[in-house]
Amino acid sequence: MTDQQPIAVLGGGSFGTAIANLLAENGHTARLWMRNAEQAETMRRERRNPRYLKGVTVLPGVQPVTDLEQTLADCSLIFVALPSSALRQALRPYAEHLAGKALVSTTKGIEADSFLLMSQILQQVAPDARVGVLSGPNLAREVAEHALTATVVASDDEALCREVQAVLHGRTFRVYASRDRFGVELGGALKNVYAIIAGMAAALGMGENTRSMLITRALAEMTRFAVRMGANPMTFLGLAGVGDLIVTCTSSKSRNFQVGHALGEGLSLSEAVERLGGETAEGVNTLRVLKYKAEELQVYMPLVAGLHAILFEGRTLEQVIEILMRGEPKTDVDFISTDGF
Ligand SMILES: NC(=O)C1=CN([C@@H]2O[C@H](COP(=O)(O)OP(=O)(O)OC[C@H]3O[C@@H](n4cnc5c(N)ncnc54)[C@H](O)[C@@H]3O)[C@@H](O)[C@H]2O)C=CC1
Ligand SMILES: O=C(CO)COP(=O)(O)O
């Protein structure tokens, strides 16, 4: 990448806009690709995102664009901030334009049928691309409003990690590098499920003891699962593991937490998702596939099983709490074995 070359951000939602602004703040030109021409035009004219991050000014260095082919041709570093349900379909027609490019996924989801993470899909779609992920406790609004924030870029391509650090690292945004691409990415996807549970607990007026128990046992079961899948357990003690788990399980700015909260208020799943007004909450789809993957791999994930039972198997919250709390006494701390909550 030369100093003059623009950097692409694909997806003009909350996170894409926040990342594009960070790049612009650091003196780069960010080509923010959006599929909706009207919204791109509004952003160009009014320097704001018409749908997401209300009140945030979009900096002059951010260029909203709608021509994906041209954007890919012009940029060698490309951040992907599309929902997981859209990523493969959106990029597959442009596969030939991705060869040799550095693709960094910021998407925190899992593909339904394949159980592939987004960087694995990028690798499939563009086998000759350089691939990395960006993940961590990074609520888009707080990033955009300059809350002091840290994140992780992960790839076995060290040069890619350094490039991402160079362009994103700034006054309020610190970027750490990791080689555990799989663990960093999996952490970002798994924590969304627990944020839904935490939102439910908050709506039901459960206290801080409960929240702490939830977060801690969530960390145990997501680590257990990730290690079984081949991730480094230490990653889960870092920003992309427990860091992201804490922020999404404690903040009402998290859309997954909001879905859980709405469920706790008594809304149905479809009503809870609808209340987000089209914003992405990845945790619902992740829950569907995770439950079956955990069973297939025989990984003990009682919180995942419990939430699945409530949302998709007609169990009540009371029944699930009874099962979770009244089970036979277990040992604490043993994260990796099947003991525990
Ligand atoms: N919002 C946040 O705080 C963070 C979000 N993420 C992740 O980033 C990803 C995107 O999230 P957000 O930006 O928050 O979502 P969002 O719901 O705010 O925006 C999604 C954007 O993708 C666009 N989009 C949807 N389907 C598309 C398609 N088929 N083709 C082209 N564009 C399409 C939408 O028009 C919208 O502009 C998610 O996986 C999320 O987990 C990661 C870190 C923080
Ligand atoms: O991933 C996030 C913060 O790190 C954002 O979480 P939500 O997608 O739940 O808003």
Automatic annotation (TrEMBL):
<feature type="binding site">
    <location>
        <position position="108"/>
    </location>
    <ligand>
        <name>sn-glycerol 3-phosphate</name>
    </ligand>
</feature>
<keyword id="KW-0963">Cytoplasm</keyword>
<keyword id="KW-0521">NADP</keyword>
<feature type="binding site">
    <location>
        <position position="136"/>
    </location>
    <ligand>
        <name>sn-glycerol 3-phosphate</name>
    </ligand>
</feature>
<feature type="binding site">
    <location>
        <position position="255"/>
    </location>
    <ligand>
        <name>NADPH</name>
    </ligand>
</feature>
<keyword id="KW-0594">Phospholipid biosynthesis</keyword>
<dbReference type="InterPro" id="IPR008927">
    <property type="entry name" value="6-PGluconate_DH-like_C_sf"/>
</dbReference>
<feature type="binding site">
    <location>
        <position position="256"/>
    </location>
    <ligand>
        <name>sn-glycerol 3-phosphate</name>
    </ligand>
</feature>
<dbReference type="GO" id="GO:0047952">
    <property type="term" value="F:glycerol-3-phosphate dehydrogenase [NAD(P)+] activity"/>
</dbReference>
<dbReference type="InterPro" id="IPR006168">
    <property type="entry name" value="G3P_DH_NAD-dep"/>
</dbReference>
<feature type="binding site">
    <location>
        <position position="108"/>
    </location>
    <ligand>
        <name>NADPH</name>
    </ligand>
</feature>
<keyword id="KW-0547">Nucleotide-binding</keyword>
<feature type="binding site">
    <location>
        <position position="15"/>
    </location>
    <ligand>
        <name>NADPH</name>
    </ligand>
</feature>
<dbReference type="InterPro" id="IPR011128">
    <property type="entry name" value="G3P_DH_NAD-dep_N"/>
</dbReference>
<feature type="binding site">
    <location>
        <position position="140"/>
    </location>
    <ligand>
        <name>NADPH</name>
    </ligand>
</feature>
<dbReference type="InterPro" id="IPR036291">
    <property type="entry name" value="NAD(P)-bd_dom_sf"/>
</dbReference>
<keyword id="KW-1208">Phospholipid metabolism</keyword>
<comment type="similarity">
    <text>Belongs to the NAD-dependent glycerol-3-phosphate dehydrogenase family.</text>
</comment>
<feature type="binding site">
    <location>
        <position position="244"/>
    </location>
    <ligand>
        <name>sn-glycerol 3-phosphate</name>
    </ligand>
</feature>
<feature type="domain" description="Glycerol-3-phosphate dehydrogenase NAD-dependent N-terminal">
    <location>
        <begin position="7"/>
        <end position="160"/>
    </location>
</feature>
<keyword id="KW-0444">Lipid biosynthesis</keyword>
<feature type="binding site">
    <location>
        <position position="255"/>
    </location>
    <ligand>
        <name>sn-glycerol 3-phosphate</name>
    </ligand>
</feature>
<dbReference type="Pfam" id="PF01210">
    <property type="entry name" value="NAD_Gly3P_dh_N"/>
</dbReference>
<dbReference type="InterPro" id="IPR006109">
    <property type="entry name" value="G3P_DH_NAD-dep_C"/>
</dbReference>
<keyword id="KW-0560">Oxidoreductase</keyword>
<dbReference type="Pfam" id="PF07479">
    <property type="entry name" value="NAD_Gly3P_dh_C"/>
</dbReference>
<keyword id="KW-0520">NAD</keyword>
<feature type="binding site">
    <location>
        <position position="52"/>
    </location>
    <ligand>
        <name>NADPH</name>
    </ligand>
</feature>
<feature type="binding site">
    <location>
        <position position="282"/>
    </location>
    <ligand>
        <name>NADPH</name>
    </ligand>
</feature>
<keyword id="KW-0443">Lipid metabolism</keyword>
<comment type="function">
    <text>Catalyzes the reduction of the glycolytic intermediate dihydroxyacetone phosphate (DHAP) to sn-glycerol 3-phosphate (G3P), the key precursor for phospholipid synthesis.</text>
</comment>
<dbReference type="InterPro" id="IPR013328">
    <property type="entry name" value="6PGD_dom2"/>
</dbReference>
<protein>
    <recommendedName>
        <fullName>Glycerol-3-phosphate dehydrogenase [NAD(P)+]</fullName>
        <ecNumber>1.1.1.94</ecNumber>
    </recommendedName>
</protein>
<feature type="domain" description="Glycerol-3-phosphate dehydrogenase NAD-dependent C-terminal">
    <location>
        <begin position="180"/>
        <end position="322"/>
    </location>
</feature>
<feature type="binding site">
    <location>
        <position position="191"/>
    </location>
    <ligand>
        <name>sn-glycerol 3-phosphate</name>
    </ligand>
</feature>
<feature type="active site" description="Proton acceptor">
    <location>
        <position position="191"/>
    </location>
</feature>
<comment type="pathway">
    <text>Membrane lipid metabolism; glycerophospholipid metabolism.</text>
</comment>
<feature type="binding site">
    <location>
        <position position="35"/>
    </location>
    <ligand>
        <name>NADPH</name>
    </ligand>
</feature>
<feature type="binding site">
    <location>
        <position position="14"/>
    </location>
    <ligand>
        <name>NADPH</name>
    </ligand>
</feature>
<feature type="binding site">
    <location>
        <position position="254"/>
    </location>
    <ligand>
        <name>sn-glycerol 3-phosphate</name>
    </ligand>
</feature>
